[in-house]
Amino acid sequence: MKQFILIFSILLISISSWSEKNKFPLIGDKAPSFTETSTNGILKFPEDFGESWKILFSHPLDFTSVCTSELCGLARNQDKLDSMGVKVAVVSIDEIERHLLWKEFMERVLHDENQAIKIKYPIVADLSGQVSKKYGMLHHATEDKRDVRGVFIIDPDNIIQAISFYPQNVGRNMDEILRMIAALQLTQQENVGTPFSWQPGDDVLVPHKPYTSDELEQNPELKDKYYNKGEFMWFKRMNKFAPLP
Q1: Most buried of 15, 40, 48, 106, CB within 10 angstroms?
Q2: Under a CB-based contact definition with an 8 Å cutoff, are residues 74 and 106 in contact?
């Protein structure tokens, strides 16, 4: 019996140790902090980005075609992200010298496309792999030491609000990342939900019937502001000039 208890205890400790070692943050968790060298100097993430929304964007390897197309696309959307109050950091397990050469190369690619765009976001040199491990970007089942394509969207309180991972051979969709940020900002600000295939400007869902009979009698315009589909799907009209459904 004592031997069984000893074996069970060792097994439990081993499982707990493995769980802690392989744990990565989930939606609702505080974003893990790190300090590393980047193409913009030393970066302490997420603290250096203050109360902005933040994106941590990982890629497998510098100077590869899919990664280059993604980071050029990210550069083209810098002004859009700035207008949404979003700051971006990119990370991979490459040395800083390689990052700087790659950044210069990508700016030449953008210039050749008649886009005089400078890459403003920092590219972090995670040579030790500690950042990638903290954020679960090394998926060992892929049998590769390079990051998968990870996206962590983090709110002004440094709480993770959305996570997505893509395989190494499939580029990410920037439109979907922008849509996700817009949805997260709106739902936090107004306590609403976004329905299937929602796009900015579309109507949104409210968590319960938005008015009582007495409130409607006192303010008949409420009927133009909200509408329902079925018994429990109540929508808030985002465009007051839109026709009634």
Answers
A1: 106
A2: no
